[in-house]
Amino acid sequence: MYEAFYEFISTPFTRSLPTESLYMTEELEEILMRLKYVAERQLFAVVTGDCGTGKTTLLRKFSDSVDPKLYKFLYISDSKLTPRNFYRHILEQLGFEAKYYRGEAKRQLHREIEIMKGVHHIDPICICDESHLLNREMLEEIRFLLNVKLDSVSPMGLILVGQSELWEKLQLQSYAAIRQRIDIQSKLNHYDRSQTGAYIRHQLKSAGCEREIFTDAAIDEIFRFSGGSARLINKACTSSLLYGSQSKKRIIDDHAVKLIIDCELS
Predict the structure, then answer these.
(1) Any idea which of 4-13, 51-60, 184-193, 235-244 has the lowest mean pLDDT?
(2) Any idea where the domains of the chain sit in the sequence?
(3) Fold of 2-8+191-265
(4) Mean of the per-residue pLDDT values of the chain
(5) Class of domain 26-188
(6) HEC string for the chain
(7) Long-range pairs for 60-64 at CB < 8 Å and ≥24 separation?
């Protein structure tokens, strides 16, 4: 609808943006570099951030940045993940049917990883998304999983990704053992006002638009509404562009954004 009116060549503010076109702040670039280091050294990392800070988007970028000839990217997102299902998910992604019992499946996984690393020279990287939902049993299993050959070798690069409450949970004394095993911890923050403006301009440029559509005052309103959350910025901008195209507004000002927020987004 609005793409033709604003003469876009693609749709901005969507999750389907190619990873090479993603807006990357210095903070995101630094965390991406840390994740690559985790992959290279087969470490244990935790990445947290509030809703809409771009955690899954960063994982997409990370996945596309690793060499598939050197690394096997494994991804799990299960709100009710159990140790048995963890091993089943991983083994299925490696192309194997998991043994029924947890202990057998765990030994099977270690065996297949040893073959993959030793024979094929491919290192696994396991991402557990939505990890703030993991229960105590699953977190303890992760600690045991990392304990290989008298705790001298890590079987895989393991990255837990979740909302900020994951790190708060790991601060509890009952999780001290797993917390002490964490090699790298990173936190994603919301965009500030300057980054919000840069993000909006980057999205428009990626869609083929070289001119300004949102006034500075409009961006101020979008920032106030979103708090710098990329997800909410996308929502506000998309709704504003729809309204702008229907109202034949080539420039979207703060009054239009306020109207959209009050009528559609509040």
Answers:
(1) 51-60
(2) 2-8+191-265, 26-188
(3) Helicase, Ruva Protein; domain 3 (1.10.8)
(4) 92
(5) alpha beta
(6) CHHHHCCCCCCCCCCCCCHHHCCCCHHHHHHHHHHHHHHHHCCEEEEEECCCCCHHHHHHHHHHHCCCCCEEEEEEECCCCCHHHHHHHHHHHHCCCCCCCHHHHHHHHHHHHHHHHHCCCCEEEEEEECHHHCCHHHHHHHHHHCCECCCCECCCEEEEEECCHHHHHHCCHHHHHHHCCCCEEEEECCCCHHHHHHHHHHHHHHCCCCCCCECHHHHHHHHHHHCCCHHHHHHHHHHHHHHHHHCCCCCECHHHHHHHHHHHHC
(7) 60/19, 60/22, 61/19, 61/22, 61/24, 61/28, 61/32, 62/32, 62/35, 62/36, 64/19, 64/20
